[in-house]
Amino acid sequence: MTAGSAPGLWAATACEVAPEAMPLEGEASADVAIIGGGFTGLSTGLHLAEAGVDAVVLEAAAFGYGASGRNGGQVNPGLKWGLSELEARFGEVGARLFRLGDTAPDFLAALVQRLQLPCRFRRDGVLRLSHTAAAATAARADAESLRARGIDAVPLDPEDAARYSGTDYYCGGLLDPRGGSVHPLDLVRSLAHAGRSAGLRLHAHSPATALERHGAGWRIETSGGRLCARSVVIATNGYSDALVPGLARSLLPVNSFQIATAPLPPEVASTILPGGQTAFDSRRLIVYFRKSPDNRLVYGGRASFSSDRETGTDTGDYAAIHQAMIETFPQLSGIAIAHRWTGLVCITPDFLPHYHRPAEGLHAVVGFNGRGVALSVHAGAWLAGQVTGQPMPDVGMPCTPIRPLPFHTLRAPLLNLAMRGQQLLDRLGR
Question: DSSP readout, 300-311?
Fold first, then answer.
């Protein structure tokens, strides 16, 4: 991996070229400065530019270097918690938060269609697969709840789960037709190109090193220049640092490890996910998989709670993911692994995205908890409305204070200890 590039399958197979974006040099100004050039930052910038706002995106590395260019490319609906739980906690804004996640795939699909974004978007549905009988019972109940809302979810018995997935590993599950897939790095780059066409200014390799008040607005120092803006949006997610006091210490960035096979022989490929769905399962340490546009199996999960930003390809975590893949799909035994990569998933203690406004004109949205492909694009559009004072109807997020976690420096050993217990419960079928 070269410095500042996104590793793995998506970098090797991207069709969209990286946007030409020189580092910021010298003095510059804008109405809005956006720090972070992933899905959230680019969606915010695109929608601001379409509204006629002079906006600039500062990306520390290359566009798509972080989670947006490294994820599994699964377009999944929803949040960790349901409508009743969110309303009980946040009231009416909880219902808007629920709709933000619930309608995120629809929003992304409409955006891809409207702007003709060449990101290999498909909408074949997502499989939620159950590894225990109890999880299968819960999935059937959830499928009925979705159907009561007019969503054509399909409950799966063990035979159905095997037919859809290509493995008899699971006890059942459900098919949610709202899910889909993209080539994530192509989506990042196509959002950047669309934003630029709308008037968005882009600067790569421009890490923000300091942020301070400047008159009625803000001043951002970068490694090569200085940007003054009326408002600032922080869209750094799991790659957040000390730029905003306390923000990084309120988050739990952990690596999600992924592997991709060599292109599968047709007789093998036809046995796995024949309907083109993406999939994730009910284990506490969630496993997820899909076929790539060039017919590889992409398989990922959390093998440890490492938060190292530069984890190499020789770590034993990849061996654990490979073993899990073979246990799930024995027909892949002997198939070569062509790509290994990882990136930081940004987890919050309540497993919900967080919106913060720590000072006048300073906004941050972080914490997509592994559900960010559609959710972060939708949240970016909503955030653009917050900045301009023209909020999106029907969807929203509560504004909460930044709450640094106690003992944050001990997060890795404590989380890894907890993970071992979760792995044991998964293996015991609990």
Answer: EE-SS----TT-
